Amino acid sequence: MRPRVKICCICSLGEAKIAIEFGASALGLVGEMPSGPGVIDDELIFEIAKKIPPPIATFLLTSEASAVNIIEHHKRTRTNTIQIVDSVSESTYTQLREELPNIKLVQVIHVSDNNSVDDAIRVSNYVDAILLDSGNPNLAVKELGGTGRTHNWKLSKVIRESINIPVFLAGGITPENVRRAIDEVLPFGIDLCSGVRTNGKLDKNKLEALMKTALA
């Protein structure tokens, strides 16, 4: 099965249209973060999301960790999916399901060691998909995505084999390594940011090259 492709760090409606033109089935719209690229204002996220036609998924990347704050963030942006980039309590998922029953929930797991496998298995009971990334939430200034680094794909494969919901693979995926990433992990989808950008801007040539390889 060909993997779904999510293009993250979308910063304008123009970039969104380019991503869709080249075959993206999901767009990542980055809210306020402690670090990392692609952050845009909530007002712009709202303006982009409302103009994206179904069945394209619009992901709000939120660093909020309480249900109340995540819900308020979503109300300002109105995407159809929430990507939670930091760890949250199990009760938070329950409250989000109650308050936002029609919104998909995707939890980021920052893959570092075998504890990441345990975390993914536990969280998979509460969300619609898991996204495996290469951040480090334990730093003084948290890295919650957009690092441009790969992680241990062997652990990602173990996670994918251990849970029963879709897995997106993120972290340093480029036109040069995307085929290996797909063959090694067999993810439901891949998540791209820096690997298809030049000087921070979406690069049509890189995007075309990656898509030709990823969707072959």
Would you summarize the structure shown here?
With about 220 residues, this protein is α/β, with parallel strands linked by helices. About 35% of the residues lie in helices and about 20% in strands. β6, α6 and β7 form a beta-alpha-beta unit.
Structure description:
It is a single chain. The protein is α/β, with parallel strands linked by helices and 216 residues long. 36% of the residues lie in helices and 19% in strands. The protein has eight helices and ten strands. The strands form two sheets. The protein has an eight-stranded parallel barrel with strand order 1-2-3-4-5-6-7-8, surrounded by five helices. It has a two-stranded antiparallel ribbon with strand order 9-10. Helix 3 packs parallel to helix 4 (90-99). The longest helix has 11 residues, at 67-77. The protein starts with a strand and ends with a helix.
